[in-house]
Design goal:
globular; mainly alpha; MetI-like fold; 11 helices; 2 domains; two-stranded antiparallel sheet
């Protein structure tokens, strides 16, 4: 036989051939099947919720619900365009606050003082905040911002959401920075780069997909919160921007609070809008989660 000709399955050693009845191969097949079954069972609640929302609220999806204001109890039609804008505004303010501080904290924990006492204390606080009830974040922002300014507002809601987003950003960004190969950093130091140059030119660009994943997961969590907004943003039946001016220090609408308010009303129109708003909110959260998965797989 020529040295260039590949061996066929019959010519392979019996020890190298895969057998489905071999104990370890059989165990692997059984475990793989069990994982698929568990994954399918776990996905049933998600698809059942999506199916229910599409059936109950999908028929109201139209340009009207995205561009009009919520109706009064005795009115028909209407929409929740101001609530969509309000959700984007409050989550955006929370992201503006939490992302820079979260990434800077992750740099300190992962690169500057990874084994210091302050780093251990900061990690403990971040992990504790991940389990913080969202309503307590609302109470904190209420005492810090609402009582200080004397009004419910978008910044107050942004502070509450930032408190919930911050630990996710910090812990995910730190873990992403730890995955950067040491050889890459040592090579940069060997070329004469300073510590700050290594962090900003090597570590952050390489860890960017993981950092963005944490950011998207934090945004997805904040978008679906209700309790903090009841203490900070309250609700509004008007647009955030009117007459070319943004009403920053005024109550602001949000999808989650609109769903909470409309779901308890005795009017069919409001209940239908609550179902449609729930569908829109779930699709927004699902979009951010899918985007996080895509960014997490992207290679820099």
């Amino acid at each position: 036989m020529s040295a260039q000709e590949p061996l066929t399955n019959h010519e392979l050693s019996p020890d190298l051939q895969r057998s489905l009845v071999e104990p370890r191969a059989l165990l692997s097949t059984m475990l793989s099947g069990a994982v698929w079954i568990v994954a399918i069972i776990a996905s049933v609640p998600l698809f059942s919720v999506l199916y229910g929302l599409i059936v109950r609220g999908g028929h109201r999806l139209s340009l009207e619900v995205f561009t009009e204001l919520p109706p009064a109890g005795f009115e028909e039609g209407g929409g929740f365009g101001n609530a969509i804008v309000g959700t984007l505004v409050t989550v955006g303010i929370g992201a503006i606050i939490s992302i820079p501080f979260g990434i800077l904290a992750a740099i300190f924990l992962g690169e500057l003082e990874p084994n210091g006492k302050m780093a251990y204390a900061a990690r403990f606080c971040a992990k504790t905040l991940t389990g913080l009830p969202s309503i307590l974040a609302g109470v904190f922002a209420y005492a810090l911002v609402v009582l200080t300014t004397g009004t419910y507002s978008a910044p107050a809601a942004g502070v509450a959401l930032a408190l919930l987003m911050l630990p996710t950003v910090v812990l995910t960004a730190e873990e992403a920075m730890r995955t950067v190969p040491v050889n890459m950093k040592n090579a940069a130091y060997g070329m004469g780069c300073t510590r700050s140059q290594v962090i900003w030119k090597i570590v952050l660009p390489t860890a960017l997909p993981g950092v963005l994943t944490g950011v998207m997961l934090a945004v997805a969590r904040a978008a679906g919160e209700t309790a903090p907004l009841l203490f900070t943003a309250l609700f509004s039946n008007y647009w955030f921007v009117e007459g070319g001016r943004a009403k920053l220090m005024s109550p602001i609408a949000s999808l989650s609070v609109l769903i909470y308010n409309f779901s308890g009303m005795p009017y069919d129109n409001q209940i239908e809008l609550a179902w449609t708003a729930s569908l829109v909110l779930v699709m927004m959260v699902l979009f951010f989660n899918i985007l996080a998965r895509v960014l997490g797989r992207k290679k820099v």
